[in-house]
Write a structure and sequence with these properties.
The structure is a homohexamer of 332-residue chains. Chain A is an alpha/beta fold. Helix content of chain A is 35%, strand content 24%. Chain A is built from 11 helices and 14 strands. In chain A, the strands form 2 sheets. In chain A, strands 1, 4, 5, 8, 9, 10, 11, 12, 13 and 14 form a 10-stranded mixed β-sheet that branches. In chain A, strands 3-2-6-7 form a 4-stranded mixed β-sheet. In chain A, helix 2 links the parallel strand 4 and strand 5. In chain A, helix 1 crosses helix 9, helix 6 packs across helix 7 and helix 9 packs antiparallel against helix 10. The longest helix of chain A has 16 residues. The first copy, chain A, is globular.
Chain lengths: 332, 332, 332, 332, 332, 332
């Protein structure tokens, strides 16, 4: 199996029970997650050797992050600890036509405040096959914009493929800032999860335009011929409880599309995209053919919606079984 | 904002978890609610100055009612306490095709046993804009039939608008008794929530007749020209988990109809009608136009279905956001 | 009412909460159930005098089984206790497109290890009207294959009707072994719950063949003219959360079919078939007409899906009310 | 084993978790219990044939009472059901120096409203060895004062021993009324649980007097020579969490005293006295010697304090094991 | 009753269940509290008109704070809301010899970042009898050191008594900084809760010296003759579960000491000191005599230890009942 | 830090809540533990490189064991998986004078059925400093008696110290069988946890004899001069909730005794001995002096009693802090 380094922020998530508002709840469920950490867990579940690099508070919650990652088999040789706080976010679970609401309390976290790289990059990327990072990291600060580029450069120098999930978050930065970062970062990227928002930032198209995914990937490809693979999910939101989800994968000038899933009802949508990315990377790293890769990734993404917490917790066998199942029987 | 007096019984509600029968449950969730109290909470959420007048047991549960109302900002200057019991009801939550079952244990409550008004009505209605009461109150006893009329008269004398939610409950009184009360009470009413059952009682139509809501309101209007506003929800019950809901508002000889919502899945339907009434009164009191009023009220009613407990717990902003949203995304 | 003897294994069921995987759960819900025990509970709910014969561990869990049965009014004069273990099974609840997963830990249970009958069969069947057993029992061991036949013979000698639910479980035995047992056992059977799998075993038809239920019952009837009644459910699995269910009853050369129910959403499917069998036996024992019988049984089966645990917990009145209801209102 | 008829009210108990006040709790634990019902459960646990006679609401909670009794093997041939309510009480669990607080909501229950005997007394006491009733029953109403005497008379006529637990409750009646009832009832009593309060009522002694239990029993014995056995617990309350408990048994002019137990910490004290009475009756009915009887009863009473709910849930073997144990080891 | 203004930070508290470590818990209980807010709740429970002035995040948790205060009847006319975060702290409950551990995450809260007074002080103190603040507030920042003095000055100008609870927290500031602040602040103080640490800061005594409380108060009094009242608890920690607690009150050159309580076992110690301060202020404001005041305050402090959460939730009657009770019986 | 191999069975533990009997509980808490696994977790917490060798079921519960070990940083290179079951045990938590009761369901587990070594012993012990095993393993079967000796021999050959915890369990084997095994095994042992029972087995002393620990160790030492270190805890059981615990360590002909702890109240005693062994091994491996070693081990053992589950979950720093603390304050 491959060796992968995922790097980014990981946070404590505190969720109220469905049907209870955050301003009234007397109990919160605790999970730990973050875009890159969720991808790390997926890949470790599939048997890869995964390092998760980050920085967490040197308190009970930093320890909890470590336990969380270890429990899924993710290595933490590059998980730094220091004085400060762990970013936190709160989830008011939606249902039916009521949207899920997230309240962030992530400012000033020990990760967000990092202003120079605290890893020795030759160690970090030694023998690594892939470096995975997301667009949330550069969105945390101007320092992180630069540090992210530095990390990509170091990874490339070390002979590592760079995987990037753009993951635009409007509460963290502007579209313009995101666009500028993408222009600088994408020349280092090999595998790119990019969606509609990235088209807006990079191709100068209008927000409301319906863009065919093939045209969009073609245009992106022209701008960044270094990118080997593009991928994204197409999600149709019927309600908080019912979504359709389909995966797209662009590789060697061809677009592959997965089965279209109706997910009904959704237990917990958070981390669905990360499960998809984990599935794509697994397909690429184990040399599945493109169609198999996109089917696997879409199945992984869908499965994530049926469990609580940010992480896909299914093995390769379980994802395949789901991918090939026709219906939902009791398996005795 | 306006000053509103809501008056009626408030009870303790004890609910078993979905999937567990009342005769087997080892745990019950505790809520407090009642038709007028739920309207009071909605209006306080929207920023009005609301007094809730009632009488509760002078024990831990009377205190709990007070805490419940205070937590939502409802004033309790007219919440009396006395020896006796608080009415109680038990809910076995339905789901899918299985109906929700309610077991009442409300007889002999300190409120139901009241046989003369224990408030000084000049104080009660001083500076009040609206007095809200429902048809559950007169259904409690013959005394309460008379006291309800007295309260309406006193409210009118004090220059207060009278809001009345007919809310027919067949376990409390007969259709005939309800009809007789309505004949006496409606001449004092300004805002009237009235549905199909009231048409039966007042217009002498058959129970199974499909009556167009416009014709029905026109006929009611002729009988009671003093009523400025009629409103009601049209609920189509596909199952306990899936309902359609649409609001109707009759004002100045015209009928306004809201968007038709599919609520899927329902978390807790109890109090949906009260949330609707709260929304209508808020629209009337803040001079929204009729279409905005009915859309606001319908949105408020629908939102209630996605949270546990009897009360709508959304602010005006949240109701408006829902009213204008197209789909259910995670709002990060 | 009738006197019925149900005999089979009963196990402890430990279920994780929906959305939580068995390999990560920190809490399990405890239920007790087994095919014949669930039928026993249904019939006791309907007012019959039911004996449940089995053997359980002489420890806290054997006591728990006894309490479980007693709480539903099932008599346990023939519930033996001995040193050993109670069979256990673990349930990872599915939802939406994610199947429910069962992990069995039933080997070596005190019941499965029984190698000679430990009841005096004249006592066991004294005054009994019906003896009910399922195909799970002979699947436990070769000894149990023989003991099951012995029990059927003894029941017939005692003038008892024999009810048999084939209930094929592929994790317990092969199709061939099941087929051989059926050939020996069915000549003693009066009431037979048999489905598609039994057709495969007995009629030599292909697994993928779509067989019309009427043809299938006719063919079965020819082979075993002693069988008075065949019955089965037709379940269409749209997802773990949504199934359609319809009952079929073959009696005196005619096939009766119930209303087709959409069950949406399912709370807990386990025991649905047993609730159906309980309904059929109740119809036969109280001399309902065939159409009423199949409607009653189908309604009972559907209701089971809306409560947690293996047992149907509805009285005859409640099943009838559901059978006749048009929609799911709050019944206040 | 013996045949015993216990008769009295049984209620639903709703308890908040330790550390949470009733006026703030959002969840209540459900138990069912009553003085005589708890004695019934104890005796059924010890293997006796016990009938529990009472009247409960014909709703889900009446069914719950039935399930509760059945689960412990208590027969309910004389458990009547009728329209009305089940008495309820609420418990705010104390701890340390904070007392436990009980809020009763038992007025107007279907049992309390009974004004003539609804059982055929020849059936009720047919073949019964003991009839057990407590002083809570006559305290419910003047009707029940008379009905209790009638029941005692009928029991005596049927050749039954009468067991009576005085169980004075100041919230239900005055000391004078209790004293008058005792004067009328005690002539029919064979086994009498009587404490300090009864001495006050009957012997005209001062409430604050320290009375030696032997003197007290002697004086009682002189007044009612028909009483064969007196028994009571001596409880020293160090705090809600720590009590000392010792049992006294007066039989054939001699007083037997059990080991003195320190109970630390107490989980749930309610029902401790009923567990003691159950132990005494078991000793008497199985012809233990007096010292063994009082030791068994005291051990049973103490054990009850370590489990939640009103009922002693230990078998004779478990009580004996506890009675003979020296310390609390893990029994593996 | 009196009018009191309490001002300070209020935080969300997230507690793991006893026996579960923060780094492993999957669930947290939610409470809201802060030194001055807890005093506010106590005083509102006793019937005073209390305003709580603070600043909270304009999100779900700011709303939750508001609901929390309202539910206890505390007015929030001066509770500001603004963008930012609510301070948070996490509690790992100790038990026995294992200490309770608190992890703070309060930096950068919207309250701590306040750098000028955002209330109009003439409005804030209009008609107020007492202004209560604690030493936690000046410890938050240098700005708050100055703002606290300004508030005290404004309160004095408005004719308000100033109550100050020194409440030294070593994680927030140094002893020296605390000492300097005290020198500046105490000249404005009328009622002062001061303990051993304050003696160290102000009187220059050694940390390990055993100081008699009377001598200590006398010395303090000489330095600050303006202070009318000193009070403090003497707590002897036998373990996390068992403490002794006694109250001291210095008034008019005399020291009054309460009963010494053994608290065993403690449910939740947090807020015990605030409950004591609330009791003292209530005594002073209702003109209890000094001995009654200190007994009331000590009883209130002890009661707090038996409930979860930061706030004393007992009425004056309940505190008095506890103060006068001899033992812990079930009060039926 | 050192490299340690721990080998033994690990089981699923299912615990009912305190105050609820196993035969009535509707929920069970899930933990994973076993003597050697608990030692492994302790040592990994202290920073050692620990391998846990065992065999578990290749199902969800085998995965759960893996997650459990990984979360504490224990390596599982030698954790085999195969078809079969994971041993299970059930705990009814005692409290006060009520003992904790354990119901085992461990027979036929995939580990217990192992009949030849499935590890390559040169790999297993490569570079290992210590091999730790307990007397539970040979008690599982005659095969395991022999395999345990083989493992000890292989470890010695590999230059590994052998640590052995005798841990006699009377439900698994007889005293005679245990004694015979000890005679064969102890010649290979370097570090030996041995208590009173071992003295009985080996020294032929009477079960009731009070043996001074020093004399006992001296006698053991004479028999097995190869053993460098003996250690054991002395536990005085006042009740299930209160124990005293003291550690003894015999090294180089001298006996070192720790502080005597009163543990009050105990949350969960299971695993206390394993935490002690973990502490001793840590002291030996990090070259603490003997007194420090025994104090550290005793403190670790005591701390374990305050958390739920089988494992000590404290770091070296936390154990040292506890070891040096005088009392239990809130550490803010």
């Amino acid at each position: 199996m491959a060796r992968i380094v995922c790097l980014g922020e990981i946070m404590m998530r505190l969720s109220a029970e469905v049907g209870t508002r955050l301003n009234q709840t007397s109990q919160l469920d605790v999970f730990y997650g973050g875009g890159e950490a969720n991808v790390a867990v997926s890949l470790a579940n599939y048997g890869h050797h995964v390092q998760y690099a980050s920085k967490v508070a040197d308190n009970a919650f930093g320890q909890a992050v470590e336990r969380h990652l270890h429990s899924s088999g993710v290595a933490t040789d590059f998980l730094l600890k220091g004085p400060g706080r762990l970013g936190t976010y709160y989830v008011e679970q939606g249902i039916g036509q009521k949207a899920t609401k997230v309240v962030y309390d992530r400012q000033g976290s020990v990760f967000a405040l990092m202003n120079e790289l605290e890893w020795e990059s030759t160690e970090l990327f030694a023998e690594a096959d892939v470096f995975h990072v997301s667009g949330i990291t550069p969105a945390l600060s101007e320092d992180w914009c630069q540090l992210t580029i530095q990390l990509m450069q170091a990874a490339k120098s070390a002979g590592c493929k760079v995987s990037f999930d753009s993951n635009y978050r409007q509460t963290l930065w502007t579209q313009q800032a995101a666009g500028e970062f993408l222009q600088k970062a994408l020349p280092y990227v090999d595998y790119c999860s990019a969606g509609h928002m990235d088209a807006i930032h990079l191709l100068g198209i209008e927000e409301k335009t319906e863009v065919d995914v093939t045209n969009y990937y073609q245009a992106m490809q022209k701008l960044f011929p270094n990118i080997e693979v593009f991928f994204s999910t197409k999600r149709t939101v019927h309600s908080t409880s019912v979504n359709e989800l389909q995966g797209n994968l662009w590789i060697k000038d061809q677009c592959y599309t997965s089965k279209n899933y109706v997910i009904d009802p959704i237990v917990d949508r958070i981390g669905g995209g990360d499960a998809f990315t984990g599935g794509i990377l697994h397909g690429l790293l184990t040399e599945m053919n493109p169609q198999e890769t996109i089917e696997f990734a879409a199945a992984a993404a869908v499965l994530k919606h049926f469990i609580k917490g940010d992480c896909n917790q299914y093995s390769e066998d379980e994802v395949r079984q789901f991918m090939n199942s026709e219906s939902a029987k009791i398996s005795r």
